[in-house]
Every structure is written in C-alpha cells, then in structure tokens.
Amino acid sequence: MAQPVCPDCQRRMEGGFLLNGLPGQSPLSAGQWVEGAPEKSFWWGVKLKGRRRLAVYAWRCPGCTQVRLFAPEG
What we know:
Blueprint: E1 14-16, E2 19-20, E3 29-30, E4 32-34, E5 40-41, E6 45-46, E7 53-55, E8 57-60, E9 67-70
Antiparallel strand pairs: 1-8, 2-3, 4-7, 5-6, 8-9
C-alpha cells in the first residue's frame, strides 16, 4: 500500500496497525475489518462465520496525530 498523505496537514503518514483479540488467537493480533453489522454470539462475543474479513492497516500523521484506517482487498 502506498504511503498516504494526511488530508488535513499534508504530511506523510506513518504506517502501523491496531492490536486486537479474536476468538482462538492471542490478544496481541492485528485487527480485522468484518463485513456487516455485529451480531452477538453465545460463545465468542460476535458471529464471524461466513463473513468476509480483511486486514486493517493504520496510518498516523506525525503532525496533527490523525489516524486513518484502510482495509484493502487481498
């Protein structure tokens, strides 16, 4: 993914990621985008079966500290 420029102050943003915990994984895993509205699951908090999931990439502006999230296909 190309390094984005902050839409507010026009500085190059720094790449990173958000930490997240998912069922059956360490709580120190990278976050994911899940399609649709969250639905409660008795066992895991939210239902994930059959839903598209994408890795989330985070970019932070060192100037204004704005964070932007992207979830590209593939």
